[in-house]
Amino acid sequence: MPDLAIRTQALRKTYRTRRGRRVVAVQGLDLEVPVGGVHGFLGPNGSGKTTSIRMLLGLVRADAGTMMVFDQVVPEHLPDVVGRVGAIVESPKFFPTFSGRKNLELLADAIGTPRGRVGEVLEETSLGERGKDKFKTYSLGMKQRLAIAATLLKEPELLIFDEPTNGLDPAGIREIRETMRGLGEQGRTVLVSSHILAEVEQVADTVSIIGHGRLLASGTVAEVIGGSGRTTVKVAIDSPLGDPAAQREAATRILTAAGLTVRAEGNYLFVDGAEHPADVTRRLAQQELYVSELIPVRADLESVFLELTADQGLGGTR
Ligand SMILES: Nc1ncnc2c1ncn2[C@@H]1O[C@H](COP(=O)(O)OP(=O)(O)OP(=O)(O)O)[C@@H](O)[C@H]1O
To answer: Which amino acid residue places its CA nearest to atom 11 of ligand 1?
Structure first.
């Protein structure tokens, strides 16, 4: 088993609302985050990501289960590991009229980190040039990167970011992604929660997908995609004889009867579940329907996510 930065077992949390209603936020979560690299913690809105992160950081008490950070049981031994962990769970407060650099210098003084480290973390988050500008002039993306810079001051080995790209424009999202990738490449462990899958797919080495507070799948992005058993092929049928739409309908009937899932999109059929693409060609040819194009479509994390969470009536949100 690889060294783990985080491990939870059978973790549970139920909230009680003021009206006495019980909300089960996390119900038996087994999470394993390997040391080094970026780990995407994925799930639809309300699936329990924030609650899990808050429990790990000792901000919310778990009802049951165990949690370990770098082999230390938390929250009991959180003081022993807290120096190795940096987290952004909500927007930190900075002084708007001070520069980014000044804000970080004050923080460095407060946590006993040499001020020399401030220049380094500004560089690491690509804020070097803007460090002397006032915080209030920063874009949302720069503010978020300053928050990351602040967590880097004490050189944590594990960084935990809860939905760090929320509210950012595409350029801001790209900058955060690059920053995370850089941190992972340095050998740090980055746990990043998100419901925006396309982004995480580009940056994560490993992922855990949760739904209703439970683990649905985990592993490298390739394993999770591969393990979904999806082989989708995009098929065009182009016989000179007959109406193309009628041929697509006939093909849909034949393939569906063979247990495959078929979705029509424009002039194409997307066929899921074939063990081998040639199966599709063969079944259609037997009924005198001839395939003019057959393109294997790589499953992406998003479609796997939607498939996994759809089973639970969760649906993915973007
Ligand atoms: N303080 C609270 N009191 C009551 N219910 C809560 C509280 N915090 C969260 N919940 C509920 O617990 C469930 C899990 O919420 P949580 O915020 O952990 O999910 P999430 O995956 O982080 O969602 P999001 O992506 O929307 O942030 C939701 O149903 C939410 O409404």
So the answer is: 25
Question: Does the bond joining 75 to the residue before it have cis omega, within 30 degrees of 0?
Answer: yes
Shared-domain flag, residues 73 and 158: yes
Tell me which amino acid residue 195 is.
Answer: H
Residues 93 and 17 in one domain: yes
Distance 189 CA to ligand 1 centre (A): 24
Is residue 303 in a domain? no
How far is residue 159's CA from residue 153's CA, in Å, rounded to a whole number? 12
- The complex's ipTM works out to 0.96
* pLDDT tens sequence across 239-262: 666 788 889 999 999 999 998 889
Which range of 132-136, 139-143, 195-199 scores highest in mean pLDDT? It is 132-136
Dihedral angle of Cα 231, 232, 238, 243, to the nearest 10 degrees: 120
- Between the alpha carbon of residue 318 and those of residues 71, 199, 306, the distances in Å are 34, 11, 11
pLDDT tens across 163-174, in order? 888 888 888 888
Residues 111 and 146 in one domain: yes
Count of the separate structural domains present in the chain: 2
Task: Domain of residue 130: give its range.
Answer: 4-227
Q: Is the dihedral of CA 177, 59, 2, 72 positive or negative?
A: positive
Pocket-forming residues, ligand 1, beta carbon under 6 Å: 15, 17, 23, 25, 43, 45-51, 195
Mutate to test the pocket of ligand 1, among 50, 162, 209 (most ligand atoms within 8 A of CB): 50
pTM of the model: 0.78
Please tell me whether residues 257 and 137 are part of one structural domain.
Answer: no
